[in-house]
Amino acid sequence: MGRGTMRKLGMVQVDVFTDRALTGNALSVCLDGRGLSSEEMQALARETNLSETTFILPGEAAAEKERGVRVRIFTVQEELPFAGHPTLGTAYVLHRQTGASEVRLELNVGTVPVRFEQSDGLPIFGEMTQKNPTFGATHSAESIAGFTNLKPSDFDDSLPIQTVSTGMPFTITAVKSLQKLRSLTLDVARATEYLAQRGGKFLYFVSREVVDPKARLHARMLFYNGEDPATGSAAGCCASWMVAHGVAASDERVMIEQGVQMHRPSRIFVRATKQDNQVINVRVGGNCVEVLRGELTLP
């Protein structure tokens, strides 16, 4: 194939939920994915080999004003309807392009707004509003222990193990100690099979014992064949769960620390509102840092 037929795609890599490069959760953003097939997008996500890769699909101004900028999100294995760190990171890239204080993304789950604020001398802070939560099934410690290296007594029995979704269903699972959470191993195949039968997708393990005293919870998210350093979609579910079960007050902004064992420390700031015994207005925020910008060549 002649050189004149090669396609050039602009790519940006950002670290999300951190204010320091080479920490947080890395995200690769394709600045214009028009002309790529779904199969090519999936292949590119495997090529970057990050937790997620996103593809911006610019559209007509009227459509973008109504629904937001179209964005698709891929892991190395599949396309997702929603994910938190790709939403924040992609909105950050668009914010830097346009300077808009609010960026609206049209994702497969619907339109998600992300608002940006900057104080003098501080990094840009972005905060997305996720869908109002759906509270699903609760689970026994014995069931979850069955596909981990933990005993039922290692789980925090003062809090329910519960599936919650703000666009992606996570089962929030509280462990009593940081030491047990650090040593956690998970049989992902068995966990996936169990959750699929009960309306779940992934597990989000947390403990009230933390490394940073400013954090409310320490979190880990094991999935596929690895671990995610910061999971914004899970954090929204966790924020809803915290407010519902008294771990955080209504509208209190608290920090979840994640990625510490991976040497990718992340700080996820969350809050949600409890009104008339309903949890609403789930917000997940953090900082982002651009670390790489270049061009991808494809036939």
Q: What is the strand and helix layout of this fold?
A:
Blueprint: E1 7-16, E2 25-30, H1 38-48, E3 53-57, H2 61-67, E4 69-74, E5 79-80, H3 84-98, E6 102-107, E7 110-117, E8 125-130, E9 134-139, H4 141-145, E10 161-165, E11 169-175, H5 178-182, H6 188-196, E12 202-207, E13 215-223, E14 226-228, H7 232-244, E15 254-258, E16 266-275, E17 278-298
Parallel strand pairs: 2-3, 4-6, 11-12, 13-15
Antiparallel strand pairs: 1-2, 1-17, 3-4, 4-5, 6-7, 7-8, 8-17, 9-10, 10-11, 12-13, 13-14, 15-16, 16-17
Helix pairs in contact: 3-7
Explain this structure to me?
By secondary structure, this protein is α+β, with helices and mostly antiparallel strands. The chain has helices at 38-48, 61-67, 84-98, 141-145, 178-182, 188-196, 232-244; strands at residues 7-16, 25-30, 53-57, 69-74, 79-80, 102-107, 110-117, 125-130, 134-139, 161-165, 169-175, 202-207, 215-223, 226-228, 254-258, 266-275, 278-298. It folds into two domains: 3-127 and 287-298, Diaminopimelate Epimerase, Chain A, domain 1 (Roll); 134-285, Diaminopimelate Epimerase, Chain A, domain 1 (Roll). Helix content is 22%, strand content 40%. An eight-stranded mixed barrel has the order 1-2-3-4-6-7-8-17, surrounded by four helices. Strand 1 (7-16) and strand 2 form a beta hairpin. Helix 3 (84-98) packs across helix 7 (232-244). The radius of gyration is 19 Å and the shape is globular.
